[in-house]
Design brief:
This protein has 235 residues and is an all-alpha fold. The protein has one domain. It is 69% helix and 0% strand. It contains 12 helices and no strands. The longest helix is centred in the middle third of the chain and has 33 residues.
Length: 235
């Protein structure tokens, strides 16, 4: 898709994909951040609630660059929900739980939508890829193909958002989970270099070096959710 945008050679398939990615991204990011905030609230920290971050309005949760990366590459990040660990009864444990809540919500959405795409495929007479690659106009696309593609894209984006944010580097969620296992002094020593580490991560992202392992993991998880019917023939 990135190559198509850069060259201007956007096909009908690319256009449909871009249009469907936008609501998928907005929903995935919103659920991700609300899950962080709600987990923190249930663990005793009212900061996110007080600042209006338990809001279904996706604009409150968008990080412009992270959203662009999610649109182009399929993995990115949202604007972090503010938390105050001093409100937690057990700081390290509750910080890790709060951090894990976002990716876990995306894993759940990813598997649900992979399963839904399988259900739609079972009701459709044609492969969505074959039909979409052959069309020349939007009116040539069947509703079931669009529905399949929506669930497919939504599933991949959720898996991408979850996996990328679990990378244990600041400021991603994985670094907050790592906090539960590192001595406090060691953790804050690493956090001093948060900005430089993130710049390095962005360089790797743009270089494409993280595409292969992340894309492989995303596709594996989607296949796992899609093929759950084959694991349970009674379904």
């Amino acid at each position: 898709m990135l190559q198509s945008l850069l060259t201007g050679s956007i096909s009908t398939f690319d256009l449909i994909t871009i249009l469907l990615r936008i609501p998928c991204i907005l929903i995935a990011l919103t659920v991700h951040e609300i899950s962080h905030g709600y987990a923190a609230y249930k663990l005793g920290d009212p900061t996110a609630k007080a600042l209006g971050r338990l809001d279904l309005n996706p604009i409150r949760h968008l990080d412009h660059f992270g959203t662009l990366c999610l649109l182009l590459f399929g993995f990115g990040w949202a604007k972090p929900v503010p938390i105050n660990p001093l409100h937690f009864k057990r700081m390290k444990r509750d910080t890790a739980i709060t951090a894990a809540a976002g990716p876990l919500s995306n894993f759940l959405l990813g598997f649900i939508c992979a399963l839904l795409s399988r259900l739609v495929a079972a009701l459709s007479d044609s492969s969505f890829l074959l039909s979409l690659f052959r069309v020349s106009t939007l009116t040539d696309v069947a509703f079931t193909d669009i529905l399949f593609l929506f669930f497919y894209i939504f599933s991949l984006l959720n898996f991408g958002l979850a996996l990328f944010n679990l990378i244990p580097i600041p400021p991603l969620d994985g670094s907050r989970i790592l906090f539960a296992f590192l001595p406090t002094n060691a953790y804050f020593a690493v956090m001093k270099y948060e900005r430089f580490i993130m710049i390095g991560m962005l360089v790797l992202l743009w270089s494409g070096l993280v595409d292969v392992p992340l894309s492989g993991a995303i596709n594996f998880l989607y296949s796992l959710g899609y093929n759950v019917f084959y694991l349970f023939p009674a379904l």
